[in-house]
Amino acid sequence: MPHEMSLPELAQALQNAAPVMVLTGAGVSTGSGIPDYRDHSGAWKRPAPMQLSEFVGSELGRQRYWARSLVGWRTVERAQPNAAHHALASLERRGQIQGLVTQNVDGLHQQAGSQQVVDLHGRLDRVECLDCGRVMPRQQHQMALEAANPHWSTSVHYSGVAPDGDADLHTADYAQFKVPACSACGGLLKPAVVFFGENVPVERVNIVREMLGQSGALLVVGSSLMVWSGYRFVRAAAAAGKPVYILGLGVTRGDAEALGRVTIDCCNGLSALEQL
Fold first, then answer.
1. Which residues have a Cβ under 8 Å from the Cβ of 119 and sit 6 or more positions away?
2. Which pTM does this prediction carry?
3. Distance CA 16, CA 232 (A)
4. H or E segment to which residue 235 belongs
5. I need a labelling partner for 201 at 20 to 30 A (CA). Which of 44, 103, 172, 209 fits?
6. Which residues contact 146 (CB under 8 A, 6 or more apart)?
7. Is the pLDDT of residue 46 over 80?
8. Catalytic pick from 85, 86, 121, 141?
9. Across-strand partners of 167?
10. What is the percent of the chain with per-residue pLDDT over 70, rounded to a whole number?
11. Which residue has the higher pLDDT, 71 or 218?
């Protein structure tokens, strides 16, 4: 396990290594009302998200995804940046952070004012056509979904929403749900996010690797690092001799590579770090 640091110790270490790269996960957005996927031990809190193979290969899978997303999207759309997002934007403006890589798909870092952001897993507020490559705002597709299924959101009961806007619906007949096709070519529409079973675009990975190469350290905030897409950068930082620090609650896959960590809620921890 990494050394448990105090916040002043972490602040000093980051100042000594500045500028640093930050990698954020779902724990940063829980303070905005967007739930995370895993508990503090790294176990799933809910069924695993939609796999790319099921979305592409199954009409019923697509119906289920968009039916649940029609309801759950509103939670993500209404979310506002919290103290953690604002603290990271402030640290960037002060020159301590030179790049922020997020595994979240909610766009809240940009809303808070962070400029150098890489959306590792894409953005939920965009929809792309898998056939012609057209990209449209999610709101446009949301309106089409609601027009094709006018009573859906009021006829189903839901008990929760995932970080990707997937709502837990009960007693829903997905086979009756209508999924609009691309208005340009009639192709399959997919949220512009990286699904489980899908690779992060190589160009995006290379941008992050270059960003990491220009950084003095890596700070991981609010991520369990259980998926390779983010964990790979912890491995790369450690291999390059760059210190890795972790801020958040619970165990992470990167604890073995980390030089130190602060076990604290992301909002409280980053707010305090900003003041040091």
1. 102, 104, 105, 107
2. 0.92
3. 24
4. helix 228-239
5. 44
6. 70, 152, 153
7. no
8. 121
9. 161
10. 91
11. 218
| Gap between the Cα atoms of 50 and 162, Å rounded | 11
- Per-residue pLDDT band for 41 (boundaries 50, 70, 90) equals low
pLDDT of res. 161: 66
3-state helix, strand, coil in the chain (%, to 5): 40, 20, 40
Structure tokens at 27: 């724990």
Write phi, then psi, for 45 (nearest 5 degrees). Answer: -90, -15
139-183 pLDDT, tens digit each:
999 999 999 999 887 777 665 666 566 776 766 788 999 999 999
Residues 6+ apart with CB under 8 A from 130: 56, 187, 188, 189, 190
If you search the block for the tokens 């996927």, which residue do you land on?
37
Burial per residue of 201-229, b for 16 or more beta-carbon CB atoms within 10 angstroms, e otherwise: eeebbeebeebbeebbbbbbbbbbbbbeb
Residue 85 annotated to the active site: no
